[in-house]
Amino acid sequence: MTKDLRTLNNLFIGLIALYGGALLSHILSVFAFFEPGELILNQRLTDSDLFGMFYLVGVTKNLALFLGALSLLLFILFIAKSRLNLRLNGWLFISVILFLFIVSFEIYSLIKYDIKMINQVFFGQEYDLRFEIIKNKISSLSALIPIHFFSIIAIFYMFITRPFTKNEA
């Protein structure tokens, strides 16, 4: 691996780790609204708490989207520059499949829920509408949220250890 490619690989590893951290902080900030195990608003929260928490949700989502877009661009640049054979590098093939899943999930989530939520956080005043958007997102995408996060961890692992690599013989 050339020095430029190794630098690109290390940048991608760092960026995907930051993206995973931003996504985890967003997930945890969203679930802090609710009682454990239920989609009922936590009774201990006051209006001033809600304002700060909604702002935090908006900021963490924007950060996750920005880092996700940067990760995608760096991933495409890595694939284009490396010219690695997907048949010989199983780790890269699996990473491509996982990244396609992540990108499709993010685009669907962005179009269906996140644009409405970000607009409500920064420009709206209706807390009830914000909660409805969050509840709908959690109830319809609940199984995909952990899969999304663990896919990021798997890509991080694949780029560090590079399993499933065949030698050209």
In short:
This protein is mostly helical and 169 residues long. It contains five helices and no strands.
Question: Can you characterise this structure?
Answer:
The protein has 169 residues and is mainly alpha-helical. It has one domain. 78% of the residues lie in helices and 0% in strands. It contains five helices and no strands. Helix 2 (47-82) runs antiparallel to helix 3. The protein is elongated, with a radius of gyration of 19 Å. The model has no long low-confidence stretch (mean pLDDT 90).
- Low-pLDDT runs of 5+ residues are none
- The average pLDDT value, as a whole number, equals 90
Could you tell me the strand content as a percent range?
A: under 5%
Terminal residue distance: 18 Å
Specify the overall morphology.
elongated
Element-by-element helix/strand order: HHHHH
Main sheet summary: none
As for the number of domains, it is 1
Helical content, roughly? over 70%
Number of strands: 0
C-alpha Rg (nearest Å): 19 Å
| Helix count from the secondary structure assignment | 5
- Class from secondary-structure proportions: mainly alpha
Oligomer state of the chains in this structure: single chain
